[in-house]
Amino acid sequence: MFDRDLPLKKEIAKNIKDLLKMNNLNQIKLSELSGISKSTLSDYLNCKTLINISNVEKMATALNVEKSRIDPSFSTKKELSIKEKTIETIAAHIDEDVTEEEIEVIKNYIDFIKSQRKK
């Protein structure tokens, strides 16, 4: 049987893994912070279950991120437009497959460079 949600499940799993790594967390700690059971988190990370809206909200709150950082279905056209403009503004040669995490690293580096000018 074909799982039409599989591409979305894979993207959500990758996003959660990236956020765990970025925040130096494991599934157990995320479970404690979000109130989502370890088995449910495991199902999301292994693409067995599509995350529900309530758990996207819990996880986003626990990780202090926008819901769209977990589930791209929450992305608005405005957010996508900002991302596209940011990519173009930073460097025209950045590939379209740049991750949100990579953009954040680039923005932080730019802020760091700017802060050094002001001193």
Structural features, described:
It is a single chain. The protein is mainly α and about 120 residues long. It has two domains: about 5-75, 434 Repressor (Amino-terminal Domain) (Orthogonal Bundle), CATH 1.10.260; about 75-115, no CATH class. It contains six helices and no strands. The protein has helices at about 5-20, 25-35, 40-45, 55-65, 75-90, 100-115. The chain is globular.
State the separation between the terminal residues, measured CA to CA.
61 Å
Low-confidence stretches: none
Fold-level CATH name of the largest domain: 434 Repressor (Amino-terminal Domain)
Sheet of most strands? none
Number of domains: 2
CATH class placement of the largest domain:
Mainly Alpha
3D shape: globular
Name the structural class: mainly alpha
At CATH level 2, the architecture of the largest domain is Orthogonal Bundle
What fraction of residues sit in β-strands? Answer: under 5%
From the alpha-carbon coordinates, what is the Rg to the nearest angstrom? Answer: 16 Å
Estimate percent helicity.
55-70%
| Strands, count | 0
CATH superfamily placement of the largest domain? lambda repressor-like DNA-binding domains
Write down the overall mean pLDDT. Answer: 81
- Please write the string of helix (H) and strand (E) elements: HHHHHH
The number of helical segments is 6
GO molecular function: DNA binding
Pfam families: HTH_3 (PF01381)
Organism: Viridibacillus arvi
Protein name: HTH cro/C1-type domain-containing protein
